[in-house]
Amino acid sequence: MKRAILVGLAMVCLVIYLVLLNGESVDFRLTNNWIVHWNVGALIGGAFVTGVLLALAVFAIQATRRAFVEWRSGRIQRRSSRIDQWEESGEQLIWSGDAPRGRALLQKAWQRRPESSYAVLALAESFRDTGELHRARGVLFDAASQQHTNPDVLLALAETHRAAGELGPCIEVLERLRALYPRAPRVLRALRDAYGEAQRWPEAVNAQEALVTEIRDSQQVSRERDTSVLLRYQASLQIKELDKKVEALEGLAASRSPQLPVLVSLGDALAAAGRPDDASAVWERALRNSPRTVLVDRLKGLATETRHRDRLRGLLRKLKAQQVSGDNLHWVVAQLWLQDRNADEAMRELQAIQQPEAIGAPYHWLQAEACRQRGQIDQAVAAYARNTGDIGSYHCTTCQRFAPEWIGRCPQCRSWDSYKAAVEIGA
Description:
It is a single chain. The protein has about 425 residues and is mostly helical. The chain has 20 helices and 5 strands. Helix 4 packs antiparallel against helix 5, helix 4 packs parallel to helix 6 and helix 10 runs antiparallel to helix 11.
């Protein structure tokens, strides 16, 4: 400060010195017709002072601008820090069980910074955790209206629609998201699953094929290709024309290691198309490679004569021991003998079973039928009395859902090839 005062005094002294040194007057033209008679020293001093004042004015303007920018930046930073604190505190309160206060802070943070998705996603998630799907959907819908291209908000909105059972709006949001990000694996996977739940299998196949092209990990690619087979299988089941359905299933069965549901459904389609011999050939080949009770049931359905059942029994005896359950295989063969009204052979097969209690109700039912055909009424009644369970159902090994018929894909847990028979011959 003292230095500035000293410099100012020196400048004033310099101006006074110039005025005294240059005392004569001169004509100074401001325009062609405007002439001023001033002292030379005064003109020199005035020019100097004017330059200094202009320089000071420019410096003051720049300093004022820098101060304003710094003030504004600090204000924005303080505002951002305060919003960050609201978001952090709101989430912590929700995790601590104080949902009303936490949601209030998150709502305030979202209103102050609507371009950020953190607060709105945390707020919507808190509503979903308490089952308030309509409130979560409303928050995300408002956010999606403001942030038309934010993928996290759109994906969360689609998931909320899906959780509420609103597959139509869910697919609509996901298709909008795919149009914005056509190569995003998360979007393709979510869209594939939504199409699957809506039974729109051809569209699910298209989404899955696009997903496979985006995966780089070899193991994950293999898993996704297995999923592609499942989706194409489900799409083929929806085909109404039998010839086209058979063609689609044959394409899937032509792979190096076709899945059992494909072979079972291919045989069903061939049988429905009036080609029982081809259906039998498909099921017999599958039975040799992967013994399963469902294949035996299908072949029994086509075995209209004793020679057909003899062929089936011969095929069952040739199965490798490590591929089958011996006791269950005896039970199945005994069932075939009963269809031929040969109760003695059926009883011999039942007697060969080492652990009948492991089979349970199906064993007692078959024993009762054999005794009835042999005329042993008392033994039949006693065996029927021990039959207290279901003998012909299938169940999902993943979610334990029961079904009267075999299903290739569980409608409850959506597991692939998870349905096994009550008496399953496969090891």
